[in-house]
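Most newcomers find our protein records easier to grasp once they have seen one. Read left to right, the backbone structure tokens trace the chain's path through space. Nothing more is needed to start thinking about how sequence determines fold. An example says more than a description, so a record of this kind follows:
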Amino acid sequence: MRVEYINPFVEAAFNVLKEVLNTDVKRGDLFLKSTNMAIQGVAALVGLAGDVEGRVLFDMTKESALFVVSAMNGEDFTAMDDMAKATIQELANMITAQAVTKLHDLGFKFDLTPPALFTGDNMEVSSNLGKEVEALIVPMQLGPGGKNGKIEINVVIRERS
């Protein structure tokens, strides 16, 4: 996976989270995971197609999701209702759109699917992009010392052959 694809997602996630959550956001160390992996409880999935194919997954616990939703809406949310789900999807849209705009400016051409949202326990996401493709995980800690949880931005991209 080329670094040119990853940096715009890292930058966009940091910038958007810092702006909309109005709290400290700290990027953790990047790491690789299998593309077949368990999700933490709430995940927004955006597909990529065009010069590249893949997906971006915004993965978080329910508690982290409720913190994000509460901060973005300026009111306390205690359940993942329709408004909360729409807010997480909008966050995924904001981050992905900013990243894709940067990638288009660099000459890469591809389209996005609307974010799909998954919530629940004991779920796994898998990819059919081949065993040689791994997911790059970019953890974003929310709040001082990560007290409000984290969001893992999970990026899987490969160039079309």
